[in-house]
Amino acid sequence: MLFNQIPGQQKTKEYLEGLILKDRIPHAMLLTGPEGNGKLMFALALAVSLMCQEKEGLESCGQCSDCIKAKKYIHPDIHFSFPVCSIEGKKREDTTSTDFLQTWRAFIEKMPYAGIDSWTREIATGSKKL
């Protein structure tokens, strides 16, 4: 995900660019807002920008190996944590995000502005408990 692929939100983009250019990235950031406002896409674009070795300002190059891995959601330094449900053959307590990683990657590729409700509908069935 590139920042130029996120419509609007110019003020937020300028703020993040200032952090990157000044090398003042905080150890944690909380991106909030209503479902569909692009929080996840901003987080992904920021992660790619931080990983990219060839970026100009805020925007990553999209071509280096870090960008390519991030675009496929397989970069080893970008981790995802999301709600899961029980799966056949495993207790709910033993189920982790890793069990749903391929589904998650396909989901965010298909629906980048979706929220937690859409994700839980994606993985839930009548017999699974969230």
Structure description:
There is one protein chain. The protein has 130 residues and is an all-alpha fold. It has five helices and no strands. The protein has helices at 10-21, 39-51, 65-71, 101-110, 116-123. The chain is globular. Residues 126-130 have low confidence and may be disordered.
Number of helices: 5
Distance between the termini: 29 Å
Helix content: 25-40%
Helix and strand sequence:
HHHHH
Q: Summarize this, please?
A:
With 130 residues, the chain is mostly helical. It contains 5 helices and no strands. Helices cover 38% and strands 0% of the residues.
Helix-strand blueprint:
Blueprint: H1 10-21, H2 39-51, H3 65-71, H4 101-110, H5 116-123
Helix pairs in contact: 2-3
Structural descriptors:
mainly alpha
